[in-house]
Amino acid sequence: MTRIVLAIAVLFSASLAGAAEKLPLSDISSYLNGITTAKATFRQVNDDGTISTGRLWLRRPGRMRFEYDPPDSGVVVSRAGAVVIHDPKSNQPPETYPLKRTPLSIILARQVDLGRARMVVAHDFDGQHTIVVAQDPEKPEYGRIEMYFADDPVHLTGWVIHDGNGGRTSVELGELETGMTLSDTLFQSGDGNLFGADR
């Protein structure tokens, strides 16, 4: 009986090991292209080691909104090819950057193709997540995004942004909900007066 139990345990552990493997880039591209809208809570570890939390909304292509919880209370909005950063603590006007200059443009692209030449610079598996490091093949100096995906079903669990200046910002997602309707007003580059609204 002991031998039978041990044999079953070995077979079971072997089947689990076989089930956990690196996801193909084609599957990840299909997954990202299948997302039209999504929302989640997030936990962000900033380059200086501080931690921020908040909520994000995404509508592909090109639209994303981060709302940070107090005491940060900032807003980052991406739309119309630009990223606008509102930081109420700075007492400065909003900062605006071209979306194409940020690695997030890879996720927000109309068509994600991770098989494109020189876009993916690393494709690994850590035992739990498939890790894909991607960059703009034409402008690698803009930085890169290190994306983490889990399987069964395929889903994005977070990313690390490595900016062109050597900075590093990590984002860990809560449960990523997809397929809801998101209003255009959510992605307006306003001053944060949409804080706390139920969408």
Strand content: 35-45%
Average pLDDT level: 85
Outline type: globular
Low-confidence stretches: 1-18, 192-199
SS content category:
alpha+beta
Query: Roughly how many Å apart are the termini?
Result: 57 Å
Helical fraction:
10-25%
SS field, number of helical segments: 3
Sheet having the most strands: 12 strands, antiparallel
Radius of gyration: 19 Å
H/E element string? HHEEEEEEHEEEEEE
Tell how many strands the DSSP assignment holds.
12
Oligomer: single chain
Structure description:
The N and C termini lie far apart (57 Å). A hairpin with a 4-residue loop joins strand 9 and strand 10. The protein is of the alpha+beta class.
List keywords for this structure.
199 residues, alpha+beta, 12-stranded antiparallel β-sheet, 16% helix, 38% strand, disordered N terminus
Give me the secondary-structure topology.
Layout: H1 2-19, H2 25-34, E1 37-45, E2 51-59, E3 63-68, E4 75-79, E5 82-86, E6 95-98, H3 105-108, E7 120-125, E8 130-135, E9 143-150, E10 155-163, E11 168-173, E12 177-178
Antiparallel strand pairs: 1-2, 1-11, 1-12, 2-3, 3-4, 4-5, 5-6, 7-8, 8-9, 9-10, 10-11
Can you summarize this structure?
By secondary structure, this protein is α+β, with helices and mostly antiparallel strands. The protein has helices at 2-19, 25-34, 105-108, and strands at 37-45, 51-59, 63-68, 75-79, 82-86, 95-98, 120-125, 130-135, 143-150, 155-163, 168-173, 177-178.
